[in-house]
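Hey, sorry to bother you again with one of my protein questions. I've been staring at a protein lately and its backbone has me curious. I owe you a coffee for this, so here goes:
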Amino acid sequence: MVPKAKVLGVLSTQAQGDYDGALQVMAVEFHAPSPLVANRKCYLARYSRHLNNDAWGVVDVSLESLFPNPLIRCRRRPSGSLIERFRDGLCKVTWVEHCEADNSSVPEVCRYIVTSGHAYGAKQWLSSLVRQHERLTHLRVRHDPKLQLSTGEANLVILADQMMRNIWRNLSFSRKNRWTKASWSALVMVATIRIPVSARRIFYFLQDENSRSKWDILSHGHIVQQTRSISNGCVPGNRVSVLEVKSPEDPDRAVKTLIQESFSTSACSYVTFTPVEASSISMILNRGDSDNVPVALSGFSILPDGLTGDEVNLVTIVFQILDSAASPMCFPAHSVHGMYKLITETAKAITAGVVDPYNMG
């Protein structure tokens, strides 16, 4: 939800590193998982207070009322969270989200998910908080020998976290153009479609290796096998996987290896993947540094349309493809056409696969 955030200054604080009584001035961008919804930018003051031994309060408010800016189309009214600690090691988080925004530029297909609060509301914030807690919990188990998560597996989870951060950035890059350049030789194209099927059904269809060849154009006619799976959440489908794509003529040799992360929350679901060299997988699992692994991310976000409960969902498709023919100033016509064909055929295949029960396998 927050691709960019920068602290511009700290007006008051009790001591360095102590946020009790701190008043920070920040520049923040918020965005929804669709290229059709423009980023919300605002300048805000954040005040943090230790209310008592078991409670913290964090409050944000926009500064546009004091420093008007005609380019800012979003004002964050008093919003924030109350965090209460319980004796059993748990905590209760109460979130309040109050925002005034100009949504006139939001397309009709995404209008209600924004105005209803599905995209930026308190439920989305709490969902992100729970998700981050689950991720950090699974990283910490690397220090607990009883849970048997090896250093190599922990590195794989860390790489999956980097994948998710990068795909969020790709979504932000794609706001101004139908396609854009994420690096010197990488092209990104994003599209959002409506599918009249539950989010659960779409999520499991996309993350299951057994149905991948039905929507992955580059895997048609091949065998997809999951060779490693690491759970990283409470939902059964929340996991980091290593997938191998093999030819039926030579099932002992992988023609492509993928790292995939999939997770689902009460507010939204995601599937992210990237092709990697088999040697990179071996390096990661043998305690190598996952920061040096190049990734070309693709994936999906699944979000209710806001009008029909869970009966209709908005699926955002993201493809990033490395192209040596691309330059900082030029996208070759054949590359753009190829990406357009890929994303269009993928959208059709996903819709057919989840709407037609006989295509579910």
Observations:
- Residues 176-184 have pLDDT under 50 and may be disordered.
